Amino acid sequence: MTRDCMTSFEKFGVVGGGAWGTALAQLLAAEGAPVRLWAREEDVVAAINAEHRNPLFLPGAALSPSLTATSDLGTLSGLDALLVVVPVPYLRAVLAALPAGDAPLIFCSKGMEAGSFDFPIDIAREIFPGRGFAVLSGPTFAHEVAAGLPTAITLAAENPALAEGLARALARPHFRPYVSTDMIGAEIGGAIKNVLAIACGIVDGAGLGLNARAALISRGFAEMTRFGLARGALAETLAGLAGLGDLVLTCTSSNSRNFALGQGLGRGESAAVLMADRRTVAEGAFSAPVIAAAARADAIDMPITDAVARLVAGETRVADAIQALLSRPLRPEGR
Ligand SMILES: NC(=O)C1=CN([C@@H]2O[C@H](COP(=O)(O)OP(=O)(O)OC[C@H]3O[C@@H](n4cnc5c(N)ncnc54)[C@H](O)[C@@H]3O)[C@@H](O)[C@H]2O)C=CC1
Ligand SMILES: O=C(CO)COP(=O)(O)O
């Protein structure tokens, strides 16, 4: 029997000890199930094992003693499934160092790789051909999941049996996966909403009002849909939890690191200063130029994404970017 056909997944590992990896590990370990988490930082490993906390990336969350951490990727073998929660710019190097095996890999990061224009599943297919893959993505602030607040999420895998088996294993009374077979749609929704959250933060920081934010969410969703449909995503995935759901969450709250980065840009602070020395990620800052370039190459119109890419690169000022967006020729809404 292959892992894809397994009906139960009991032993989980988590690759990545940032806020989201820690919250997902805690979700699975909360009732005492053993969960092994790989973290890159020795101080994170030590704090999880000795104090059952991750003060660096998920301060305030009490972790279950059945969640244990390691800094040795080699020990993540003999498990039923691995949740991979490494920011996309570092993903390829971490995957290349993972031990071989047949446990399905569930990708939880939201971004597109520079240079290759790959999403996480594309990278994984190169490194682990033939292995089972899934994508877990949706409106899920890590601290809320760790606190046991109600959350719904998309769980996509090409193989419906794998998606359903994983959904059963990950579901909790307050954590509800909705299954799908559309991995690319889930990946595109998560990557593009990060960029649009920066845009909405800019509008907030610059004091441009709530009408402007609603316009950005709608027109940003149109960009996500154009890009997604061109790459074979299903419209229903983009309109679901991994697309519109996450867009609404992160475009309306400064708990989003991407939105908060945008607020700083909107107040006129420099991107370089806002990005310097930060330990946490705002994936949209990495992904914006990548997605903008991929869209240009495929002649997909994404003016908001393009403006965020130029603002993050320090190539334009907020007032000029807004003026450029507002002075585009009038057009039918459906385009
Ligand atoms: N925090 C959240 O609420 C959510 C985050 N995500 C996504 O999950 C992914 C991970 O984000 P977080 O857990 O929030 O990260 P985080 O911002 O809390 O922590 C940064 C992470 O990057 C890792 N890192 C830094 N430099 C690295 C390197 N050179 N090699 C490998 N790893 C390195 C750190 O070890 C740490 O795990 C991102 O793609 C994010 O978009 C998805 C859903 C919710
Ligand atoms: O993706 C997230 C919630 O779904 C977290 O968003 P930020 O990375 O912007 O904090």
Automatic annotation (TrEMBL):
Coiled coil: none annotated. It comes from the Bacteria. NADPH binds at residues 20, 40, 110, 142, 257, 281, 283. Catalyzes the reduction of the glycolytic intermediate dihydroxyacetone phosphate (DHAP) to sn-glycerol 3-phosphate (G3P), the key precursor for phospholipid synthesis. InterPro entries: 6-PGluconate_DH-like_C_sf, 6PGD_dom2, G3P_DH_NAD-dep, G3P_DH_NAD-dep_C, G3P_DH_NAD-dep_N, NAD(P)-bd_dom_sf. It comes from Sphingopyxis terrae subsp. ummariensis. GO terms for biological process: carbohydrate metabolic process; glycerol-3-phosphate biosynthetic process; glycerol-3-phosphate catabolic process; glycerophospholipid metabolic process; phospholipid biosynthetic process. It catalyses: sn-glycerol 3-phosphate + NADP(+) = dihydroxyacetone phosphate + NADPH + H(+); sn-glycerol 3-phosphate + NAD(+) = dihydroxyacetone phosphate + NADH + H(+). Substrate binds at residues 110, 257-258. Its EC number is 1.1.1.94. Sn-glycerol 3-phosphate binds at residues 110, 138, 140, 193, 246, 256-258. One of its GO terms (cellular component) is cytosol. The keyword Cytoplasm applies. It is an enzyme of class 1 (oxidoreductase). This is Glycerol-3-phosphate dehydrogenase [NAD(P)+]. The keyword Glycosyltransferase does not apply. Keywords: Cytoplasm, Lipid biosynthesis, Lipid metabolism, NAD, NADP, Nucleotide-binding, Oxidoreductase, Phospholipid biosynthesis, Phospholipid metabolism. SUPFAM superfamilies: 6-phosphogluconate dehydrogenase C-terminal domain-like, NAD(P)-binding Rossmann-fold domains. It is found in: Cytoplasm. The active site is at 193 (proton acceptor). Residues 182-322 form the Glycerol-3-phosphate dehydrogenase NAD-dependent C-terminal domain. NAD(+) binds at residues 16-21, 142, 257. Signal peptide: none annotated. Residues 13-162 form the Glycerol-3-phosphate dehydrogenase NAD-dependent N-terminal domain. The gene is gpsA. Pathway: Membrane lipid metabolism; glycerophospholipid metabolism. One of its GO terms (molecular function) is NAD binding. Belongs to the NAD-dependent glycerol-3-phosphate dehydrogenase family.
